Structures are given as C-alpha cells and as structure tokens.
From TrEMBL:
This is SelT/SelW/SelH family protein. InterPro entries: Selenoprotein_Rdx-typ, Thioredoxin-like_sf. It holds the Pfam family Rdx. Keywords: Redox-active center.
Length: 99
C-alpha cells in the first residue's frame, strides 16, 4: 500500500510598504487569515517592500491590491476573497450572511 502525498496547501503572501509603516496592518491581516484558515494554509509570509505597496496574494494570484481595490480590506472581505481562491465551496457562517 502506498501513501499519496497530500496536495500542497496554499501560500499567502502579504507585501507591505515599510516606509508607510504598514507592517502592523500586514501582521494583523496575517493573524486574521491564520485564525480562520489555520490548517487550510501552508503559511502566510510578510514581505517588506516600498513605494506604497500593499498586496495580498494566494499562490501568486492577487486577491487584494491597495491601489486597484481602493485602500485596505476589512477582515470580512479579505477572508471572503481568500476563501474564494482556496475553498470556494466553504461556508464562512456569519461572515457570508448579509445584515
């Protein structure tokens, strides 16, 4: 009997501008993602950058870009966008409910 290797889990990358002091924001978003998707993700990497950049990718696919998307995501929107990439069928409970 042979074991099939598990599929690699998705990797999230958060590129943030060090000159803009966005490290704490990036770390908070990483914490939110790890709290929600802990065992579904292979990891969350914080990537220092410059030039006002703030970009979140999942396996290289951009899910949020500050300039394109008009600022920073809230936790709900970020989690929904990451979910839509890693597990579109997953119900996020109260996050998916409309008020």
């Amino acid at each position: 009997m042979t074991d099939t290797p598990a599929a690699p889990r998705p990797q999230v990358s958060i590129l943030y501008c060090t000159r803009c002091n966005w490290m704490l924001r990036a770390a908070w978003m990483a914490q939110e993602l790890l709290s929600t998707f802990g065992e579904d993700l292979g990891g969350v990497t914080l990537v220092p950058g410059s030039g006002g950049n703030f970009e979140i990718t999942v396996d290289g696919q951009v899910v949020w870009e500050r300039r394109r998307d008009g600022g920073f995501p809230g936790p709900k929107e970020l989690k929904q966008r990451v979910r839509d990439v890693i597990a579109p069928e997953r119900d996020m409970g109260h996050i998916d409910r409309r008020p």
